[in-house]
Design goal:
Layout lengths: L3 H4 L5 H18 L8 E8 L2 E7 L5 E7 L2 E7 L43 E6 L2
């Protein structure tokens, strides 16, 4: 499990958004073909929402949703012992998605985010 102490070292929401946009822009410069890119950023994901993502081509990925409440990150590390495919039940590790705030519940049902492939989920709200 991820230590809450380690989460305190993550960038604030605006810095994370800036970093995500920068990675996507650099990736677009170096990889003009969308299929070859790791990083993406959609500034108009939905009304009042932005989305960042990373797919490494080996099965690892993350999705970050930014909205007026904050940001939520869902990730999948395919070699993690918490992978749904590392156990017989083939479901998300118990507790990983249990406490997602209502501000982000819609995120959990978005098909594009492959919620069934989750090994971690963290969020931060604006104060």
């Amino acid at each position: 499990m991820v230590s809450k102490n380690a989460l305190a070292h993550l960038p604030n929401i605006e810095s994370l958004k800036d970093l995500s946009q920068s990675l996507a822009i650099l990736d677009a410069v170096f990889s003009p073909e969308w299929e070859c890119r790791y990083y993406s950023f959609n500034s108009k994901w939905d009304e009042g929402e932005m989305m960042a993502s990373m797919r490494n081509g080996s099965g690892d990925e993350y999705f970050i949703l930014f909205n007026d409440k904050g940001a939520i990150i869902k990730g999948f590390a395919h070699e993690s012992p918490m992978s749904p495919y590392a156990n017989d039940a083939e479901k998300v590790w118990a507790g990983v998605l249990d406490d997602v705030p209502s501000d982000f519940k819609r995120f959990l049902s978005e098909p594009a985010f492959s919620i069934e492939d989750t090994t971690f989920c963290i969020w931060r709200r604006y104060n």
